[in-house]
Amino acid sequence: MSWENLIYIADFLERSGERHVSLLGGEPTLHPEVVDFILYLVARNFVVTVFTNGILSPARLQEFKTHFADAEVEQLSFVCNLNDPVLTPASPGETERINTFLSILGPWVTPGFNIYRTDFTLDFLFECINRYGLRRHLRLGITHPIPGKGNLFIRPLEMRQVCRRLYSYREKFDAFRVKPGLDCGFPICQFSDEELGWLRRLGLSQFSCSAAIDITPDMSVYHCFPLSNYRRKSLFEFDSMAQIHEHFVRIKDQIKVEIAGIYPECDGCNYQEDGICGGGGLCQVLLRFVDEASVRLPEIEHELAKNRLST
Amino acid sequence: MSLPRIVCPHNQHLLRTFSGQSVAVRVDHWEKAAEAADDVCSSGNELFCVIVDTTAPLDEIVLPDDWKQIPLAIMVPTIGKFRNLTAKLKAWRDFNLRVFLGCDDASNRAALRILSSLGIQTCAVFGSGKDDWEALSDLMTYAVLGQLPHASIDPFSFIATNYQPNAWVDWGALYFDDPKHFLHLDDQGRVALSRAARERGDFVAQSLAECGAAAELPAIKHRKRTFMQYFLDNHACSFCPGWKLCLGRFSASVPQDNGCSGFFLEMIDVSRQFKRLNVMPQDKQVWRP
Amino acid sequence: MATVILEPTAECNSRCVYCDGVREGKRSSARMPMELLEVLFSRINEFLLARPDENMEVVWHGGEPLLLGPKYFRGALRLQEKHCAQTRTRIRHCIQSNLTLLTREFLGPLKELGITGFGSSYEMVPDVRGFGPRRDSADYNRRFLDAVCLLEEEGFTWGVIYVVTKLSLARPLEIFQHLANLSKGAFGFNPVLLYGRDLDYLRVTAEEYADFLGAILPAWWRQREELSQVHPFDWLVGGFLKENTSLTCCDSGICARTHFSVLPDGTISHCGRASDWDLLDYGSILNTSLAEVFDDPQRAVLMQRNTVLPEGECKDCRFWEICHGGCPLDAWSWAGSFLHKSEWCMEKKLFIEKYLEPLLEREKKSGNGSNGAGACLPEKPEPAEIRTVERAVAGSDDGAVTWIDPYGGLGDALMLSGVLKQVNDRDPSRKFNLVDRTKYRAILEGHPAIACIGHPPAGAKLLRTDYWASHLFQVEHHRAYQVLAGLFGLETPVEERLYAPFELREDSLLTGAIPWKKLNVLISHSSASPRKEMSLQIWERLLELLDREGVLAVQATRLQDRYIRGAFSLLGLAGPRQVISMMKRFDAVITSDSFLMHAAHLCGIPALVLWGPTDHRTYGYPEQIHFQAKLACDYPAGCIGPEHPEFYASKCPQGAAHCMNSFSAETICAAVMDLLASNRAMRSGEDVWLLADLRDNAYKKF
Hints:
The complex is a heterotrimer of chains A (about 300), B (about 290) and C (about 700). In chain A, about 40% of the residues lie in helices and about 15% in strands. Chain A has helices spanning about 5-15, 35-45, 60-70, 90-105, 125-130, 160-165, 170-175, 195-200, 240-260, 270-275, 280-285, 300-305; strands at about 20-25, 45-50, 75-80, 110-115, 135-140, 180, 215, 220, 235. Chain A has a six-stranded parallel sheet, with helices on one face. A three-stranded antiparallel sheet of chain A has the order 7-8-9, with no helix packed on it. In chain A, helix 3 (about 60-70) runs parallel beside helix 4. The longest helix of chain A is centred in the last third of the chain and has 18 residues, at about 240-260. By secondary structure, chain B is α/β, with parallel strands linked by helices. Chain B contains eleven helices and ten strands. Chain B is globular, with a radius of gyration of 19 Å. The longest helix of chain C is centred in the middle third of the chain and has 25 residues, at about 345-370. Chain C is elongated. Chain C is α/β, with parallel strands linked by helices. Chain C contains 24 helices and 19 strands. The interface of A and C includes residues 251 and 301 of A.
C-alpha cells in the first residue's frame, strides 16, 4: 500500500466517522513503512489494531520497541494469532521471534487463535497471557471456507463440538480472567443455555455475521476475508463506509433470500430475524452454491461464475 | 518610496541600509531564524517572514515553542523520516509556518500529502523540467478536492481559491517570484527581480535607493509585460487552454514536454469544481504573500 | 435604443488588408470639426428631450478615432455638458479602436464620457493587420498589447472581434484558445466581408465560416458559462435555445428603427457601409433633425423586409427569429436589393443544423443515459444458462429426478403443495427434489412428492414454478393453480386443492393467550407487494366497527408487518405452520391477496378477500367473498404481473388514491358480518354462497 492510498483511506474513514482501523495482511509488519503508517494513523487520532503473527525481524522489532513500546502509544494494540506449539509448531527461529515480540509488546497484545479442528487446545494461550502480560482477552476465530480455496474449516455439524470444547475451558477462562471474544460465524443455537449464560455474563450477546470491510493495497473492498473474491468493488466507487456497508448488506440479503443460514433451522429462526444470530458464516452458505446448478439469483450466479469459484 | 517586499539575506549591515520596508529575510539554518527575525525588527523594518532555506531534512529541524509567532517559510529537500517528525508536527500546527518541498520524486509528493493531512501548510515546488505531471495532477486533486478539510498545499489551493473564469492567476508570489510583490537583494544590496535573477547576477539596480517607485522601474514594467511576448511570437503557450493559470511559466520545456498543458487544463477543471462546491476557506490563516 | 455610429474621422493609421477604406482609397484625412460635433450633440439633446423614454448610444468609430487626439475628446465632453445637460444621463458612449495609439492621456476624458471599455480587433496571423506599406503586424500587435496592459492597469475593460479570413480556417481551435487566453473571454468572430472580386485568398464562404464556428463549438460549449459573451455563439446559441433574445444589428431586423451614422462632414447615412456605397443618404446633420432621420421614407424599405421576406425567400425558415434575413446591406451587395435575404443567412443555418443541433442531441442523450443510481448497484449479470424443463412429463425419459426450483410467495408454495399432492396421488412413485430456498421448507418439508431438499448439482433437470412466466398465464383470467398444474403434467382443469404436508399442531401457548370472543377473525393487512395493501386507516376503522359487533380481530403475520390498532397482535410469533394449525379456531379470515387467503381455502375457513392490482378470477377461490376494486389508473388490467415485474416491490404512485383504498370499512364490515352469519348457517347445514363484485361501495349477494 502506498502513502497516497493510506491517506485516502484515512480521509475516507474519518469522513465516515470511523475511528478504528485494523492493519492486516498477509503479514502487515512486513510492509517497509508499517511503523510510519501506524504513527501516521495514530497522529490522525485513529485507534489502530495490527494483526500479526508476531514473527518480526530483529530490525523491525527494534523499531516497534522504540516507537511503540518505549513511547507508550495508547491508541495502538496488536492481535497476535498464535498457533498451538504442539499441533502446529513453528520453527525454533520463529518461536523465538514471537516470544521476543510478546516480551516487548505484551501489554499491547491481544492473543488470537483460529479454530480449525475440533480437538483444539487453549492451554498454551493462558500461559502466554500470564507469562508476557498480554491483554486478558482471547480472540477466537472459526476458520471458514474460502470459496474456491479448499482450505480446512469447521463444518456446521462440527460447531457443537467446538462450542463444547470451548466451554470446557471455562474454569481457566474464569481463573485467569480471560474473556473469550468470539469472531463471526458462531451460531447461537450451538451453545447450550448454560454456555450462553456464561458468555452473556462476560458481555457477549452477538452471534451475527456482519461485514468486516477489508481494504486491499489496490483499494478493493470486500465483505470479509473468506469472501475476498466475492463481489469486490473499488473503494473509489463509494463515498462513505456507510455506503459500503449498505452495499454488502444488500449482498448478504440476496444470499439470505436463497438460504437463511448454515442449518435448515435457520429458516424462520427468530434469533436471526431479530439480528441476534447471523445463521453462521455467510461464506459457509455461499459455499453451497458453488458447483450447484444455476438456480440462484443472477447476481450470485454471475459472480460465482466470474471468479470460477469451486470447491 | 513604496516598494514591494524585500527578500534579503540575513545581513545586519545590509538591513540597516533601508527602513520602513516589509522584509522576508533568508537564513540557511533554522537556528538562526529567531535572530534574523529580531534583526529585521530592530533595523526599523517590518518582518514579513523568515525564509529558512536549508539542506537539512525537515525531521532535523527543531523549533522552540517561543517561535510560534515568527512567520516561517521552511524550504527543505525532504522531510526525512516521518517517525522522527510525528512528535513535532502536533506542536507545529500552532506555528505560523509553511513548508516548501520539491515535487520531483514520489516520496516528496507523498510527504506533501502527509504534512497537509496533519495540518501543516505546504507549498509544492515544481517546474524543474523533470516533473511527473500525472502525479502532480493527483496531488493537485487531493489538495483542492480532498475528502476532508486539510491544510493547504500551494500553489494548488491558492489557484483554486483565486480562480476566476476570465482572469489570469499569477501565483509566482507564493515562491517570492513576482516583482510586483517581491524584490531580491544580494549581500551587497543589489536588486534583482527574482531569486533566479539574483543567482544569475541579473540586477536591475545597484541599490534600493535607485529603484524609486517600483511600478515605474523599467525592468519591472518589462517583467509585467513578459506575457506579451508569448502572444506576439504566437508561442505554443499562447494557444494553450491552461494559459490563464500557467502564464507561460513552464514554456522552457515546451514542446518536448507538454504535460504542463494537460495539468493546467485539469487544474482549471478542478478549480471550477472547487468553486461550485463553495468550499470554505481554512480557519487558520498563516502568512501569505 | 437609438444608435449613432459616429465617424469623426475616416483616417486610419493601420492598413488592414481587407478594409474597404484602405483598398478603395476612401480614407480621406477629413475630420469632423468641433462645430459639427456641437450640432450633433444639440440634435441628440433635441431628440432625447422629445422622447423621454429613449436613450442614445454613441459609437465612436472610424477610421481610427484615437487619431483625433485626447484634446478632441475633452472637447466632446465639454460639448456634451453644454448641450445635453438634461439628457446626458441617457447618452451612452462606446468606442471602437485599434488601440495602437492609446496613451494614458486619452483615458481621463474617455472615462468622463462614461467609456469604461474598448472594442477592438486583433489578428495573430501576420501581415493581415499592420502599419505602413509593408503592413508591419509585429509592431502593430506590440502596440496593441501595450495598450491592453495600460487599459487593464487603469481599470478599463476591452474586447476584440476577430475577423475570420481564409488564412484562419485551418486553425479554428488554436485561434479560439489564443483569443480566450488573451482577452479573458471578451471576444467574438465575424467573417471577413469582401465586396470586390479580388482578395480571394482571404475570402470565406458562408459554409466555410459555419465550419469554422462549428469546429470551435464543442470547446466553447464546454466553457459556455465562463465564455458566455463570445460572439456569435452567445446570441446564435442563446437565440436558438430561446435563452437570449439580444441580437446584433445585422440579425435583429430592426436596424431601420434604431441606427444611423454621421460622417466627418456631417452627412447622415444608415451605417458605415451604407455611406461607403452611397446608399441611404438621410441628409446632413446641419439641416436634418434626428426625428427626420428616423422618419426618412427610405427606412420603410428596410422595414418591409420583415413582411416581404417571411412571405418570400425566408418563408417557413425556422431560424427567422434569430436572423431576419441578415444585414440589409449584405442583401443589397448580393442581390442588388434590400428586399432579399443576405447570403450569410446560410452560415447560421449550416452552423445550427450541422453542428449545434447534433451537439444538443448528444448532450440530451448523455444526460439521459447515465446511471444516476451510482456505482453501488450490482453489475448487470450475463444471463445464466438455465436448463429448464417447462412441463414435467409422466415417465421421464432418462429417469433422472427433476429438481423443483420454487418461486413466489407462501401462497404459491401452498398451491405447489396442492399440485404436487395431486401428482403424487396419481403416481406415488413420481418424486421430485426441491431446491433449498429460504421459506419453502416451512410448507414443503415432508411432502410425499418430495424426496429431498438440497442443492441440485450442475446439469440437474430443473423445473421452475414461476407459472406467471408461462404463455398460458397470459390468457386472461387463466387460473394460476391450473397453469401450475399444467407445468407438472396434470390434465387441466383440476380441482384446486391445497395440501399441508405436516401435522397440524397448535401452539397452545399462543392460542391460549388469545382473548377469544364469540366471533373471531384472522386478518392480514400486509403482502409481499405494497400495492396489494389497503391503508391502515381503513383497516383500523374496520376493526373498530367489528369490535362494536363483538368480533375479535387477530393479526398473526410477519414480525415486520404494520400493526393495526384494535387487533390482537401475534405478529412474528406464528410461522406458516402455526398459522395454518390455528386457523380452524377462527370464524373467518379478512385478507388481501396473500398467503392467508390460500390458507383459509386450505382450512375451509370463510374468507373475505380484498383485490386491487391482482384479479380474484386468477387467484381467488370461489367460496370466498371477493371485493375487486375498480381500477382507474393507467393499468386497468392490473399493475402487478409478468408485464411489469418492476412494480411488484414498489408502492403505488397514486398514494392515497390507490385502488386498494377505494373500499369502505363499513361495506367490508357489513360483508364480514354477513359472512359470519352465513358461516354459521353453513355450519348449520344451510347452503349459502356469496360472491360480490363491488360497485358503488355496496356489495350484492348473488
